[in-house]
Amino acid sequence: MSTIEDPWPRLVPPEIVRGKVLILDLNGLLVRYCNQEEADASRVFGHQHVHLSTHSWYVPRVGLSAFLEAVRRDFTLIFWTSCVKRNADALLRDLEERSLIPARFLRSEPEIEVWTQAECTRYATTREGFRGGALYLKSFARLYDYNLVTRDVLLVDDSVKKNSTNSPFNAIHPRSYTPWTKEHAPHRDQFLCGTLLPWLQAWRQSTIPTPAYIRAYYRELGAQDPIEGLRSYWGDLVTPEPLSGLLFDDAILADRAIARSLFIGDVPAADVSVVVAGVDDPPVV
Ligand SMILES: [Mg+2]
């Protein structure tokens, strides 16, 4: 395989980035917003639940502070939530005041970006479950604005749909954090520090291109299959333009071809075989 050229050439010199870029969702991964009924049910399991505003509660996830302390050291860290900035600020301020995240976390150096709905790409949809008929997608086009264009980007988000414009293998999608279920009772839920953190540290040390790495190892996390998730959401809508144009629009470099061949099937397999070979036989970087 030595004749294979690196199919993921960097667009910018590596010195511009501060290492691998880790983008973390908030709700459903690090905390869970809930209504009063869910908050009460979470308390029964022994969770600390917080009353944030009139009709809004949240439950922080076990190990949150230790997890953030570790990833802050190892990655260029970005929080990206599709909620509005006012709500994200209120949540983060509350977490800090209660010492549920490390002290001065958001003001430490290098500063941690917080992206909200304003940084998302709005997609109008009439599908169920989206108030206001809009879906807010986390498009990696945003990375260009911050000189963070690199193949080493990973979004961790419980929603597969939010990654619809990027390569499906630039993200992992753990199952949503539901503190009112037995599965996520405090004494059982070791996901952040026991499962996700070691996985991220292994990814950080790997020289395998990120999309190939994710594709090979996302199952170890018990994460959702991104192609199945995207198919079940977009399914019948994907073939006619412009939707097939929208999907994976900002997929980094060669990933777009892989994504389209897997999901839409309009790129001949021969054109992406070199990329697929990278999973087992990574190009020298
Ligand atoms: Mg979420």
TrEMBL record:
Q: Where does the FCP1 homology domain lie?
A: 15-203
Keyword Repressor applies: no
Q: What is its main location?
A: mitochondrion
Q: Name one Pfam family in it.
A: NIF
Describe its membrane topology.
Single-pass membrane protein
Under the cellular component aspect of Gene Ontology, which terms does the record hold?
Answer: TIM23 mitochondrial import inner membrane translocase complex
Q: Could you tell me the keywords of this UniProt record?
A: Mitochondrion, Protein transport, Transit peptide, Translocation, Transport
Q: Which domain of life is it from?
A: Eukaryota
One GO term of the biological process aspect: protein transport
SMART domains tied to this protein: CPDc
Coiled-coil-forming residues are none
Q: Which family does it belong to?
A: Belongs to the TIM50 family.
Assembly behavior:
Component of the TIM23 complex.
Provide the protein name: Mitochondrial import inner membrane translocase subunit TIM50
